[in-house]
Fold this protein.
Amino acid sequence: MAVLDGHGPEGAGLDDQADAAAGPVVSAAMPATPAAAPVRDTPPTVVRDHSPWQRQYVRACVAADVVAACMAAAVAYLGRFEAGWHPAYVWTSLLLVAVWPAVVAANRAYEPRFLGSGSEEFRRVGRAAIVLTAVVTFTAYLIDVRVGRHYLLIALPTLALATFAGRYLLRRWVAHQREQGRFVHRTVLVGHEDGVLDLVERLGEERYHGLRIVAVCLPTRGQRPALIEAGIPVVGGFESVAAAVRLSDADTVAVLANADFGSEQLRQLAWDIEPSGAELLVAPSLVEVAGPRLSIRPVSGLPLLHVEQPRFSGGRRLVKATVDRTVAALALLVLSPLLALIAVAVRATSRGPVIFRQQRIGRDGEPFTMLKFRSMVDDAEGRRGELLSLSDGNEVMFKMHTDPRVTPVGRVLRRYSLDELPQLINVLLGQMSLVGPRPPLPSEVTQYTRQVARRLKVPPGITGLWQISGRSDLSWDEAVRLDLRYVDNWSLALDLLILWKTARAVLEGHGAY
């Protein structure tokens, strides 16, 4: 797409078009009489229909939810009766299939703005499952319907899991389409050059969000070289946004936080783009704060953004600790044959202990001994100094793509993160969590600034945002940013999402060396 510039040699640009469209200017010193005042027709508001891909995705979600309900009903019926005809349960199964999409819709899990990216879609599906469970339980008790508890205990959890799986597969399909440049929102971006460049870079790395920048409006005409060099279409100033929306056929306007765009300008912009039917997105001057911590509190007509403080103790942390230790105990029990096999392989192929012990720093700066399967030669720590100049890691962490100290078995263990499995014992002892920031070395902590030290407010994790975002390939600043994002926005839902994505990251092996 060619760069649109209000100062190009082809004649009037967007700025000039916007001025011309505004009509004649009336001097404040010469108040117009009613007879002389020009009558300006207000353009009719366009009710923009959802794009074809959004309608297609909503239909696919409804179909996937119906299929999930059918699967749950069939599994529960067969699990309860194996064979035979039981009319009451047949009708219950049909009712479950019919009611489930309605419950999902009532929880607004089909709204296009929640689909395709973010966790809100899954959160609303989860809420729908809880609502359905409560309604079924209460209704059965109220009208004294004799529905077996075993049927419900099978049907409802299966329904939720099947729905989550279906939505996840659809999400992957949409992400693939967006990698090909389809299923995107044409977006006009409004803000300062630095913020615009940062967001464009992030959207280039995370295309699954589906925002394609088709035009950029800057506060001054001088802030353009870097954007033009990057091939980003700069179309004029803040006063040109409405014209940019019309000429680029955009369906979204995103306004980045900046001091030059106050509440009055934002309200005027909303009025200006109203006839086009474009959606307005506003980025607050907060970074790395997740949606569940944000809410709107209206005060005297002014919408104030309420930011909930992160919680580092209390009932939620108790639940997290309970879940961590329970899952760790079960995982150790289930994986015990694999652990024994790895121990034999490590012992048989190189000299030294099977378990490598290393001091790490845990919550609130408390040191602990982290356990791993040994993946290097026995004297690896003594040889570390001679390899420091060859580090492929970031500014703080030492890593090498082809570390000569790694044994052949250790390379396989690292490739699939199997060397991390003994850390389940650390989780069982309460020293670590399943999900959390990366456990740092004491030498790394001595280099922490006050801001970075905030990552020590929660227990370190076996996996985390760093694990699913590139692991050792991340820069130090990016690793810290991800850890701090987790610390400030922890939730059980986020933990489950990270654990789900960890499996794929481990299989792909990106950043594991």
